[in-house]
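$ ./design --mode recover --in tokens.txt
reading tokens...
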């Protein structure tokens, strides 16, 4: 979240600094400092700011990434970000899409529907803080999974004609390419050897490139997102 964002969205709502300050429970001078980037927006206040000013999810502060998002928590977080496949879930407090992507990717048992949803996140929020995501993914040796997802997302963005998303995702692919691991990876550690052998023979070229056992493809995902 930046001071420019706060100022632009405040003005879009037609509020004065004093009106925003009253809603936030702070002084006008404090809001002035925030908008001039002379004072960082504290985490305790940031969620309230994003809600009041309807800031994009990428402006929500990134929380702790030390724990994986389990199936139910990930599903709710993705629904709150607007993923249509989980629209039946009741929205909760928004998380930054970068945090949702990384914490969900950390799960040892990542079911296909969540993998598909993460590809959607990468396209929908292509302007998220990729530097942070890539840095964290490398620390946890998740770069192959992430690279595969980003490749699928880039292909979907190309099909949609979203040039900005394509450019952003291409840069991420290039950054991850230099750290691609040779060891095999999978989204489910409980996968049987028979499943592994089948996927080695039937996975897509993109999955093979990133050494990931998956049969997901951009064309398959495109049909699912349009359904």
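writing sequence...
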């Amino acid at each position: 979240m930046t001071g420019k964002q706060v100022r632009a969205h405040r003005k879009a709502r037609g509020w004065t600094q004093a009106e925003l300050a009253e809603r936030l429970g702070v002084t006008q001078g404090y809001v002035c400092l925030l908008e001039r980037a002379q004072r960082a927006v504290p985490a305790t206040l940031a969620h309230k700011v994003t809600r009041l000013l309807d800031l994009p999810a990428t402006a929500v502060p990134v929380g702790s990434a030390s724990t994986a998002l389990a199936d139910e928590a990930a599903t709710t977080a993705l629904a709150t970000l607007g993923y249509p496949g989980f629209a039946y879930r009741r929205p909760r407090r928004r998380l930054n899409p970068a945090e949702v992507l990384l914490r969900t990717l950390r799960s040892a048992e990542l079911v296909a529907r969540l993998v598909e949803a993460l590809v959607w996140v990468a396209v929908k929020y292509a302007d998220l803080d990729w530097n942070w995501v890539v840095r964290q993914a490398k620390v946890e040796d998740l770069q192959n999974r992430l690279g595969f997802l980003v490749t699928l997302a880039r292909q979907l963005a190309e099909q949609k004609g979203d040039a900005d998303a394509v450019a952003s995702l291409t840069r991420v692919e290039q950054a991850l390419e230099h750290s691609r691991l040779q060891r095999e990876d999978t989204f489910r550690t409980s996968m049987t050897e028979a499943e592994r052998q089948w996927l080695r023979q039937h996975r897509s070229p993109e999955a093979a490139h990133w050494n990931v056992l998956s049969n997901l493809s951009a064309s398959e995902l495109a049909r699912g997102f349009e359904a």
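exit 0
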